[in-house]
Amino acid sequence: MKIIAIIIMALSGSLLASNIDKESGMIIGENWELVKANCTGCHAAPHVTSQRNDRDGWIEIIRWMQNKQGLWPFDADTENKILDYLTLNYGLVDNRAIQKVDKATGMIIDDNWELVKVSCTGCHSAKIVTQQGANRDTWLEIIRWMQEEQGLWQFDVSTENKILDYLSKNYSRSR
Ligand code: HEC
Ligand code: HEC
User: Fold this and answer.
1) Which fold would CATH assign to domain 99-170?
2) DSSP 95
3) Whose CA is nearest to atom 22 of ligand 2?
4) pTM here?
5) Which has fewest Cβ within 10 Å: 9, 66, 91, 120?
């Protein structure tokens, strides 16, 4: 089985995970170029990226710059996109990491997690699952490999899809 290939795919996935723009140091994510265009004209990007604020805090800063520092007004759509980017990437908490975790297994509690727990922790610990990062296709390959080589039973299509939904949503990256 292509265990090595899986490991390589998982590694390259995590390297791509947080891309940084070399010039500005900004996290490359949805709307980042909009924020770069609007927020790095008067001061450099580190003014922005060194801050951590919740959405209200970011609104306050923008209002203050608009009232006192000559920042132009934004239409509602643009302002929301800017706030989405700032709150996701420069928020008070890592918004991408707000996840409830089951204490016993360490598994992320999300739709279908109990189905995955029942299906996937009988032969090995949950850790074997949760430390693996893979996209949906690779998760399917892993399941097929366990079915062919390791005695894992077959799932009906609906069950398999639920398992794959959970795994590819919550364990797409190695941790
Ligand atoms: C029209 C010019 C201008 C633009 C455009 C601008 N700012 Fe500012 N900003 C300022 C000035 C002036 C200051 C205060 C002086 C300083 O700290 O250098 C400031 C300060 C800040 C600070 C520091 C506030 C503090 O607590 O000290 C942050 C954070 C910030 N800006 C974020 C942003 C973001 C986010 C955007 C894009 C939405 C943006 N800025 C766009 C002029 C601007
Ligand atoms: C019938 C037993 C069995 C069940 C049930 C089972 N596995 Fe496995 N699994 C194995 C065995 C055996 C190995 C290989 C030995 C080891 O690494 O402990 C393995 C290895 C793995 C690996 C590591 C693969 C690698 O690259 O080394 C992952 C990830 C994994 N299983 C995920 C799952 C998931 C997800 C499920 C639920 C769909 C599941 N397992 C259910 C038997 C099982």
Assistant:
1) Cytochrome Bc1 Complex; Chain D, domain 2 (1.10.760)
2) G
3) 128
4) 0.49
5) 66
